[in-house]
Design goal:
- This protein has 118 residues and is mainly α.
- The protein has one domain.
- Helices cover 73% and strands 0% of the residues.
- The protein is built from 7 helices and no strands.
- It is elongated and about 65 Å long.
Length: 118
């Protein structure tokens, strides 16, 4: 079956709309990432880091920050730099590294597929 150029365009637009709908960042997705660890201390640490990251970026939820990153209103690296700058200077460097190390996996699971579909 051969499509006309107009039908091709309409189909492409419908596919893009569906991809965007399916790729929306949700609070459930963030919660799933936090709860993916078995130990309660790891879950608590993930939740605390994400909460502080949200506050450091002037938002009220992780979904807001992720949507800003997705919309290219905020750079993901800048968002983490803001978070790290908000941590107390007395915090051990190893603790800062530990907290920072959570972000690559978080961004990969919450954003990568979404950015690739845009």
């Amino acid at each position: 079956m051969k499509l006309t150029p107009d039908e091709n365009d309409a189909l492409a637009e419908a596919i893009l709309r569906k991809l965007k709908e399916l790729s929306k960042v949700t609070q459930k997705g963030v919660d799933d990432w936090i709860n993916a660890k078995k130990s309660e201390s790891a879950k608590f640490r993930r939740a605390a880091v994400i909460e502080s990251w949200v506050k450091a970026n002037g938002k009220s939820s992780p979904v807001e920050v992720l949507e800003d990153i997705r919309a290219h209103k905020l750079d993901m690296y800048e968002s983490v730099k803001k978070y790290l700058a908000s941590l107390p200077e007395t915090l051990a460097i190893s603790t800062k590294y530990l907290y920072r190390s959570l972000f690559p996996n978080f961004f990969e699971l919450r954003l990568e597929r979404r950015i690739l579909t845009e």
